[in-house]
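Severity: low
Component: inverse-folding endpoint
Summary: output formatting inconsistent between runs
Steps to reproduce: submit the following structure tokens with default settings.
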């Protein structure tokens, strides 16, 4: 599976983005207030707040996306080799969105932007 160059590049990029998310959260965890706005699906500002421990869901989700997509890639590689490149590209896009969300949340809370 990793002989396919597109799959290898997308996997490495996804793992690097997941590491960036982890280190951004790890290095800024002590600067966070007790509650951070995390649940943006809720309408009221009070309902959007979560304890700062829940910010660790973002790097966990990034690593989970990579793990699940690698599992799908390994199980379907023999039947659909072209589909694997698409799955891993979507993995990279999902992790890039998680990185942007992490930077936006931390930037608004800490005051980067």
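Observed output (run 2 of 3):
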């Amino acid at each position: 599976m990793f002989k396919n160059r597109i799959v290898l590049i997308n996997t490495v990029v996804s793992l690097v983005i997941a590491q960036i998310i982890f280190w951004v959260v790890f290095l800024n965890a002590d600067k966070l207030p007790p509650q951070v706005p995390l649940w943006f699906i809720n309408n009221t500002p009070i309902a959007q707040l979560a304890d700062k421990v829940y910010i660790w869901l973002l790097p966990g989700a990034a690593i989970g996306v990579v793990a699940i997509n690698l599992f799908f890639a390994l199980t379907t590689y023999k039947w659909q080799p072209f589909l694997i490149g698409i799955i891993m590209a979507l993995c990279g896009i999902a992790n890039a969105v998680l990185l942007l969300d992490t930077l936006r949340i931390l930037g608004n809370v800490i005051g980067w932007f």
